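Same chain as my last thread, 188 residues:
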Amino acid sequence: MNINLSWDLFILVFFAIIIAYSFIIGRNQTLKVITGTYIAIFCSDGLGNLFLHYFASSPTFIKVLKFFSVASAAQATAFLKVLTLIVIVVVISIRGAFDFNSDEHSHHFSVRMSVTLILGLLSAGLMMSAMLIFVSGGSLVDSIVVANNPLSQIYSQSRLVRIMLDYSNIWFLMPGIGLMALSYLKKK
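reply #2:
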């Protein structure tokens, strides 16, 4: 069997892992992951932008980049944003000082499973869309765009990367709408 590794495969595997993880941790913890992801997106974007603005042009930092064979400050910033995003999501998911109570046992099994599946899908889409925007040099907080976008070649080759980036606003919107819709599903 000959398997070609591609960005489409990476995105599909990422979605499968996040959806499977959502079923493992349950609906309430998936809601916590989504909320943590929203917080992490803005924290990591802000931190990365500050890093790029204040440290990227310093001669010492440029020497460090050369030492680690990093091509540019933009690449270092993208790496910092993605790393910060992942760390904050994990910390908030594990140690976050808030809980959700979505009445998991008040609905039929198929409704609970469907809601968990949809939340897992939305969680994966939110995370993947944010990471792709960060890797492309984009920013949600500031209008920073890198001239030689590292994802341009991947964008032209991968249908799923195009979907994630072209519809990133929808990926950012839908988990919030999902949280509101789930509030109305909650039985009194």
